[in-house]
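Thread: Newbie trying to understand structure tokens

Hi all, I'm a second-year student working on a class project, and my supervisor (Dr. K.) asked me to get a predicted structure for one chain before our next meeting. I've only ever worked with sequences, so writing a 3D structure as a token string is new to me. If someone could post the tokens and maybe explain what I'm looking at, I'd be very grateful. Here's the chain:
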Amino acid sequence: MTSAEPATTAADLADLLAGPVVPAARGLLGCLLTAGGVTVRITEVEAYAGTAGDPASHAHRGRTKRNAVMFGPSGRAYIYFTYGMHWCMNVVTGPDGEASAVLLRAGDVVDGLAAARSRRPAVRRDVDLARGPARLCAALGIDGAVYGVDLLGDGPVRLRPAAAPVPAAAIAAGPRVGVTGAHDVPWRFWIAGDPTVSAYRRHVPRTRR
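---
Reply by user tm_fold:
Sure, no problem. This is what the structure looks like when written as tokens:
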């Protein structure tokens, strides 16, 4: 399998994640993520190339305690806390020592709907349960405790290949959401027409009075 082909087995998925971040991001669409009794089908992602000239990446300035897991091995969970209230999850990609990761932006709940609803009781529509990176983590019950977990193993968070790989023609691409650096780089990928994909919002810098 080449890094540009869809992953249909666990070995394919491991190979895909060990390669460049952009093909890995595209290949994660349609994959299944399970945690806390809930499974989502991944419908939207964003690629971040780490120290390789990507100022939007958390690893752009080098290794820190927060981003250390991004430097490998691939297939691990990079979890971070944002806005003082939300958890977001990335899948680490690439060879050891070359920080890169894919942010999981949205998913469709395909199993464990009752558990997802119990964690997000204010949500009226099921398509909104995991529509956005923080909402996805909330629906799955994911928090900082799973930082560094091997997603390809049998741990508390498990990533598995898509039951039916998403055709290349069904994948759309565009700018990443809410980043200050390299915000026009078209490294956000989503399943075209899927109602669980989040709304695009370009980052607007705050002006000082």
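A couple of things are worth pointing out once you decode it. The mean pLDDT is 88. Helices lie at 10-17, 21-28, 113-119, 133-140. Feel free to ask follow-ups in this thread.
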